[in-house]
Amino acid sequence: SLVVLFGATAGAYGAKLGSDERELILLVWQVVDLHSKKVGTLHKSLVKADNLELSDQCREVSGLTPEGLGKAEPLDRVLQQFSQLVSSDLKVLGRSSYTLCSDGQLLIRQVLHPETSKKNFLLSDCFYSFYDLRKEFHTCYPSSAAVKDQTIKSMAEYLGLGTDEAEEDFGVWQVKTMVAIIFSMLSEGCNHVFTEPETVKYKYETALNLTLASFFFPLCSSKSETVDSETVIRARGLPWQSSDQDIARFFKGLNIAKGGVALCLNSQGRRNGEALVRFVNSEQRDLALERHKHHMGSRYIEVYKATGEEFLKIAGGTSNEVAQFLSKENQVIIRMRGLPFTATQEDVLGFLGPECPVTGGKEGLLFVKYPDGRPTGDAFVLFSCEEYAQNALKKHKEILGKRYIELFRSTAAEVQQVVLNRYMSTPLIPTLPTPIIPVIPPPYTIATGSIRDCVRLRGLPYTAGIDDILEFMGDATGDIKPHGVHMVLNQQGRPSGDAFIQMKSADKAFMVAQKCHKKMMKDRYVEVFQCSGEEMNFVLMGGTLNRSGLSPPPCKLPCLSPPAYAAFQTAAVIPAEAAALYQPQALLPTTRTPQASAAAPPTVTYYPAQAAQLYMNYTAYYPSPPVSPTTVGYIAAPPGAVAAAATATHTPILPQPGALVRMQGLPYNTGMKEILSFFQGYQYAPDDYNGLIQLSDQARSVLQAPKEWVCL
């Protein structure tokens, strides 16, 4: 028997059903006995959604109202009634088993499964297998329209069924027409047989694809595996603690390939909020793309197309040690971070205790090491069941030796990436993807001059972004210069409530200030003032602009280190005039006079491209486990640019990534002796500072003779 099922949500209808994350509000069904060609009672049930607001399209097509839905039952009770009524109808027809039949994939895959997953209740087994009437129809009538172009109405017209949609209630006409189409397919001329239903996977299966090792280690295997680019997506904006099972739950209803979730890591082995997901076919991938900006908890997730090569780059590659560790399937993987460098397998097993036994004992442990064999403090542990893994996670931040240990869920792909990042000389995964269009094209330039062609927005909501500002500007957005919207951040890297906008002319800036001053954005009014590029420059560099005039940026005062910026991988050149503001003045010679600076050859300083934007552009970062303070990252300049600069003048350039670190939160009475004592056991190269920055003789003596302490 078939149970013909039709449904509708409070939002989009037809080909976009489920794409807007709106809840189910209607279910209509009828049992069909394929042998006797009899039907059961037609049932129609309204569903009470948490949000009773209906879209205009829903109101027009369905004729339903919020008042009527408010009296309905919630989805879990409606599904219980569905099971009871179907069982009752089957008994009347003398049948015991059935399979669902729906108009396409969307109702089952994009509505029912995602919604029940979010509401934390399980669907019965019947919703994991169903017939797609459109596919069955195209199989029975190959000359009909393509499957993606089929609708209930087009299939009825192809068969010449004379049903009038206006004569029946919404949903009732659709089910009656679907039943008529099925009977036509069962007629003597066609004798269609329903044999291969669509299936929905009950759960995501983790696995290690050992043939992927050949992608990075060609000597391990002569066979290389390819991944169809039409089956891969990139999910962006994931919470850092999300696991592969969480991602599979986000795509609930769609069939992910075995081992098809790969969490992306940065060069430090931490999750960067992205994942690549491989589906079983292109049809499932296309449905996944419709979940762009659907929510995981309170965060929306961006979903984009990706390539098979990208998936292999992240999920592929392994060593014999990793392959052996991951050879046991259906294991729960936990990652440990912060282990003492002297920790042994016995220490880890003792830390976990008898309440969470490790699969295979010592064989279920994998220590991550650097290429020279030194331990990194990370390890992966296998557990045979969820209960043991939960017991292990309860030991998060407990002490082993003199250090607290962090534990969080992991995946097979993450194991491979972390090991490979330590094994290979260059990082496998970039810190952040290169943007398609840079926010500010290098070389970095900042507005100057006294022409009042800029406006300042003050009092912005802290949650406001670039899109909110453009919406606030209204028609005036067409008068904004390219890359002319600059969010001002405070010293902690958070939005300060201010923004500057560069307009095409002073007249345009004046009109915007007049029109938008004290206009509301969200629940706050925003002040808009006309200003000059010079004034904007001062504030973006860290100064203040108030009624008393301009206060110089703090970076113009002597300081030990530049403000903290996140490290990025691409380099950019910024003018020496701007770069000089961020030099560590306490370690530089006495500032030269402006005349001397003018006569000297221009210097070139390299900073990361995003760091060169200073406080200008607000970018949201997704923290990775464990959350820790951001450190300064300096990146070596491109070889070609270095050579060009060297031919002009000697320019001190940082020799390698990570040459310097910045410390925040020091006690005020801390001296150099305490700082070097804090880093005891870590190697540093004092000789390298000669070519790194210009030092006074006194400072150089301190760095080169660390056993002799000098107070500066």
Automatic annotation (TrEMBL):
Residues 332-412 form the RRM domain. PROSITE patterns: RRM. SUPFAM superfamilies: Ribonuclease H-like, RNA-binding domain, RBD. One of its GO terms (molecular function) is RNA binding. One of its GO terms (cellular component) is nucleus. It is found in: Nucleus. GO terms for biological process: mRNA processing; RNA splicing. Signal peptide: none annotated. Keywords: mRNA processing, mRNA splicing, Nucleus, Repeat, RNA-binding. SMART domains: RRM. It comes from the Eukaryota. Its main location: nucleus. Belongs to the ESRP family. This is Epithelial splicing regulatory protein 2. It comes from Callaeas wilsoni. The gene is Esrp2.
